[in-house]
Specification:
This protein is of the alpha+beta class. 34% of the residues lie in helices and 11% in strands. It is built from six helices and four strands; from the N terminus they run ββααββαααα. The strands form two sheets. Strands 1-2 form a two-stranded antiparallel ribbon. Strand 3 and strand 4 form a beta hairpin. The N terminus and C terminus are likely disordered.
């Protein structure tokens, strides 16, 4: 994956994951954005500032990555009251624009990364 200029970052995704859509196209659950860097939700709630998000989950049944903070925030934030989970999900859905459109400017190149690691 190429992030900008000469900076390169290697991310590991399931081979069955969809290719990253262009910015503005519908989100397809490819996982590139979550594997490249933590979103504001991960920074605020998980105190994670770099690397792949700890809350990204692979769902083999639909062959998509999903946000664990959106699906089950209590699993990731231990002291989150159960009664607050629904409201938290609503906020998280809005903050990450879940399922709306791709907003990752990462230039994912699966072929180049795969070729580089075959040696």
């Amino acid at each position: 994956m190429k992030t900008s200029g000469a900076d390169h970052q290697i991310i590991w995704l399931q081979p069955e994951a969809a290719a990253k859509p262009l910015i503005g196209q519908a989100c397809n659950g490819c996982g590139v954005c979550c594997a490249a860097e933590p979103c504001p939700v991960a920074r605020v709630f998980l105190w994670q500032w770099r690397g792949a998000c700890r809350a990204v989950e692979w769902h083999a049944d639909v062959k998509q990555y999903r946000c664990g903070m959106l699906l089950r925030p209590v699993h990731y934030v231990r002291y989150l009251p159960l009664w607050f989970e629904a409201r938290c999900r609503s906020w998280i859905r809005r903050w990450i624009a879940a399922g709306v459109a791709c907003d990752s400017d990462a230039d994912a190149d699966a072929d180049a990364d795969a070729d580089a690691h075959i040696e």
